[in-house]
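Field reference: sequence -> structure
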Amino acid sequence: MPPKDRISYFYDGDVGSVYFGPKHPMKPHRICMTHHLVLSYDLHKKMEIYRPHKAYPVELAQFHSADYVEFLHRITPDTQHLFRNELAKYNLGEDCPVFDNLFEFCQIYAGGTIDAARRLNNKLCDIAINWSGGLHHAKKCEASGFCYINDLVLGILELLKYHARVLYIDIDVHHGDGVEEAFYFTDRVMTVSFHKYGDLFFPGTGDVKDIGEREGTYYAINVPLKDGIDDSSFTRLFKTIIAKVVETYQPGVIVLQCGADSLAGDRLGCFNLSIDGASLLANLILLHIGHTECVRFVKKFNLPLLVTGGGGYTKENVARCWAVETGVLLDTELPNDIPDNEYIKYFGPDYLLKIQHGNIENLNSKSYLSTIKMQVLENLRCIQHAPGVQMQEVPPDFYIPDIDEDEQNPDERVDQHTRDKQIQRDDEYYDGDNDNDHNMEDGL
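Structure field:
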């Protein structure tokens, strides 16, 4: 029985082949691990699989400054020593290193989120997933926090062509500062971020008092949390706030950033969240709790939904989490025993899908969480109910030119993405009458 929701899923293995460096916590390889779990659980048979187009510089410059985009396009590991001033200007360095195929990496993950937004806009799907996206720290003119291009802002700008109000929800352990900053002065986008705050934790923003400015006053919502928050506290707070946000703001579409560094045991995180736990009440009612419950709860609003990845630095747990959440979006419960797959060795020694909650001391007292909740709800009471907008003619999607094979130089290196478009591969995701694997250019 196929799920009632039409789901588009975006994946390009080239994203997983880039390397930030030996000591860098960001491992894009986690995207390949996620994808192979999705394949091993046969979830791909319930979705349409798309390889995203590589976003063009002109698309990236819809948010980012043209000079910054051009520099990302130009810089390479071999030439970076010639551009020390520019590296400092654009905040490239230890956190945001220059590596091989950096710009192509940005083009692919940003292209996935842009394509996801376009499919939602054109009502070609109900839910769109891009686990390679969610890089929420990038700013208009600089990189930040392992993020170079802010795909979320670009996706939201696409959604605003068709929707009067976009709701952005962020459950990464780090504050979604880049997205909040981009829409801080408008009521067209409401940003809601649940994150660790204090103790100089990166990026150091996201106080409950940061609420937006000018037309955007009260349309930025921050839920600052302390170390060790557990499943039940987090999900209870999340559901209370998000239910009130949706009721008050009445968004036309939701963007959900599912950063997995809020899971217990993350290399850079400090929360106690399980992937998908459960809790028994006194009267034996079973409640779902954990990171995945946030996805399950947002899905129940039955609004168009764009889901991305984000942070997550214990890569085997990131893959587990996003595979389970793909299943949740498909209304599919996954067996806890992980099937054999190309990356099975990473999931030993137990080879189980679910991870348990952590045991860091929970510094979030009931009174602290109650105070945060009451402040957020009070701010929500101050906003205009479902603000309207004077809609204008929808600007067209960018024209994506086809490759003219006659004009291609056969001596130039052809990347994997281009080769995939030109030949029929022997290792496609699956064969048969239900093959839903397409290039995005063919799908729109």
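Note: The first strand starts at residue 7 and ends at 10.
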